[in-house]
C-alpha cells in the first residue's frame, strides 16, 4: 500500500494539470474568469478548477454563471468556486484577485476579421478593465478578448486613468499561437510535441502573428516554400477553426487549453518558480510598436524581464517589418477609444 506521501507524489506526477500547465502545486491563488459562461470561459474554468495552485475561482459573466459555478463546484479539487452575475457583483468577484482572465466578448463569424469585433468588444474590455483597476489593481490581467492588438492598449489606458498602471501586469494572451506552432511543427517533423517550443512574436491577428521557426527548440529546418506555408498556416489557424465550425463560433477548446497554460505560468511566476517563460502581447520597447509580443521571463511582479526578439533570420525580419504598420494602427485605435469622451483628451498616452 502507498504511504500518504508517496500517494501525494504519485498524484502530483500524474496530475494532468501539473504535467501540462503549471509547476506549482501549492499556493493560495484567487483567480477570476470574466466571461466564464462562454465558449472559452467554461472549459477554461474547468481547467483552472483542476489547477491545484488555485484555491479560489471566481466566475463572472452577465448570464448563466450561477449554473456554471454550481456545476464546477462539484468537482473534487481544492478550488472553491463562486459565481457572480451582472455588474453589481463584479466588485465582490474581483476583490483579492491575484489573476484575472478576460475571455468576455463576442467571437468572429466566417468572413470577419478580428478588428471587426472592435465595436462590440472594446466597450466590454474598457468596463471590465476599469473595474479591475478599481478593485484588484495589483492583479495580473490576462486579456483573451479580441482584437487583442487593441484590447490590451484599452485595458492599459483604463489602468492609467485610475493611476494604477503597471505595464508588467497586463498581458494579451497569445499562447494559442505558440500551442499551434508547436503542434504543427511537431506533426511536420514527427517530434514529441511536449518537447517542441516555437516562439511566436508580434501581435494576434493575421500577418501580425510572427512564428519564429528559426528559434524553435529543438532546432528544425524546412525548405523555404514549406517554411512559408507553415508560417501562413499558423497565421491563419484561427480562421481554419472558424471555417470548420461554420458559423457556430471560433476556437474555444484549444484557447481554453492555451489560457490555462498561460494562467498556470503566471501563477508559477507569482510563486517564485525560476525560469518561467511565455510569449505575451505587452507594453514593449523592442520595436516601433508600443505593444509587442516576445518571450517574457515571468516572476513575482509579472514580467521580470523581456527576453526580446533574439536572433532572427531574414524572412522573420521581413515579417516584423510588414506587421508594424498594422500593429501601430490597432494600438492607436485602442488608445483613442479608451480616451474618447475624456474632457481633456491628450494625444500622448
Ligand atoms: N486571444 C486568443 O487567442 C483568442 C482565441 C479564441 C477566442 N478569442 C476571443 O475570445 C472572446 C470570447 O470568445 P468565446 O468563443 O468564448 O465567445 P462566447 O460568445 O462563447 O462567450 C463570450 C462570453 O462573454 C460574456 N460576456 C459578454 N459581455 C460581457 C460582459 N460585459 N461582462 C462579462 N461577460 C460578458 C457572454 O455572456 C459570453 O458568456 C472573443 O472575443 C474571441 O474572439 C481570443
Ligand atoms: O480566430 C479567432 O477569431 C479567434 C482567435 O483569435 C484564434 O486565433 O483562434
Automatic annotation (TrEMBL):
Residues the entry annotates as binding NAD(+): 35-41, 61, 121, 144-146, 255
GO biological process: malate metabolic process; tricarboxylic acid cycle
Assigned EC number: 1.1.1.37
Reaction catalyzed: (S)-malate + NAD(+) = oxaloacetate + NADH + H(+)
Record keywords, A-Z: NAD, Oxidoreductase, Tricarboxylic acid cycle
GO molecular function: L-malate dehydrogenase (NAD+) activity
Positions of the Lactate/malate dehydrogenase C-terminal domain: 174-337
Annotated positions binding substrate: 108, 114, 146, 180
InterPro entries: L-lactate/malate_DH, Lactate/malate_DH_C, Lactate/malate_DH_N, Lactate_DH/Glyco_Ohase_4_C, Malate_DH_AS, Malate_DH_type1, NAD(P)-bd_dom_sf
Active-site feature positions: 204
GO cellular component, one term: mitochondrion
Tagged with keyword Cell division: no
Family: Belongs to the LDH/MDH superfamily. MDH type 1 family.
SUBUNIT field: Homodimer.
Protein name as catalogued: Malate dehydrogenase
Lineage: Eukaryota, Metazoa, Spiralia, Lophotrochozoa, Annelida
Amino acid at each position: 500500500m502507498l504511504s500518504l506521501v508517496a500517494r501525494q507524489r504519485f498524484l502530483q506526477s500524474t496530475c494532468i494539470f501539473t504535467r501540462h500547465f503549471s509547476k506549482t502545486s501549492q499556493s493560495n491563488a484567487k483567480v477570476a474568469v470574466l466571461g466564464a459562461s462562454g465558449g472559452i470561459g467554461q472549459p477554461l474554468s474547468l481547467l483552472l478548477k483542476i489547477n491545484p495552485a488555485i484555491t479560489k475561482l471566481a466566475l463572472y459573466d452577465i448570464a448563466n454563471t450561477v449554473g456554471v459555478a454550481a456545476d464546477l463546484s462539484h468537482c473534487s479539487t481544492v478550488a472553491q468556486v463562486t459565481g457572480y452575475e451582472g455588474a453589481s457583483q463584479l466588485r465582490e468577484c474581483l476583490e483579492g484577485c491575484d489573476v484575472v482572465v478576460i475571455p468576455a466578448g463576442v467571437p468572429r463569424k466566417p468572413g470577419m476579421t478580428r478588428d471587426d469585433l472592435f465595436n462590440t468588444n472594446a466597450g466590454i474590455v474598457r468596463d471590465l478593465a476599469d473595474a479591475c483597476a478599481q478593485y484588484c489593481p495589483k492583479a495580473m490581467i490576462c486579456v483573451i478578448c479580441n482584437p487583442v492588438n487593441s484590447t490590451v492598449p484599452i485595458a492599459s489606458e483604463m489602468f492609467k486613468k485610475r493611476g494604477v498602471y503597471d505595464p508588467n501586469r497586463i498581458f494579451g494572451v497569445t499562447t494559442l499561437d505558440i500551442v499551434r506552432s508547436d503542434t504543427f511543427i511537431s506533426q511536420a517533423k514527427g517530434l514529441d510535441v511536449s518537447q517542441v517550443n516555437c516562439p511566436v512574436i508580434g501581435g494576434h491577428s493575421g500577418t501580425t502573428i510572427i512564428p519564429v521557426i528559426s528559434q524553435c527548440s529543438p532546432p528544425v529546418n524546412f525548405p523555404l516554400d514549406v517554411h512559408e506555408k507553415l508560417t501562413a498556416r499558423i497565421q491563419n489557424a484561427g480562421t481554419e477553426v472558424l471555417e470548420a465550425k461554420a458559423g457556430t463560433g471560433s476556437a474555444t477548446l484549444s484557447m481554453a487549453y492555451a489560457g490555462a497554460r498561460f494562467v498556470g505560468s503566471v501563477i508559477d511566476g507569482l510563486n517564485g518558480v525560476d525560469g518561467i517563460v511565455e510569449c505575451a502581447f505587452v507594453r514593449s520597447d523592442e520595436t516601433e510598436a508600443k505593444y509587442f509580443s516576445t518571450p517574457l521571463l515571468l516572476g513575482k511582479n509579472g514580467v521580470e524581464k523581456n527576453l526580446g526578439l533574439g536572433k532572427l533570420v531574414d524572412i522573420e525580419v521581413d515579417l516584423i517589418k510588414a506587421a508594424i504598420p498594422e500593429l501601430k494602427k490597432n494600438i492607436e485605435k485602442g488608445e483613442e477609444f479608451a480616451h474618447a469622451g475624456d474632457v481633456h483628451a491628450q494625444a500622448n498616452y
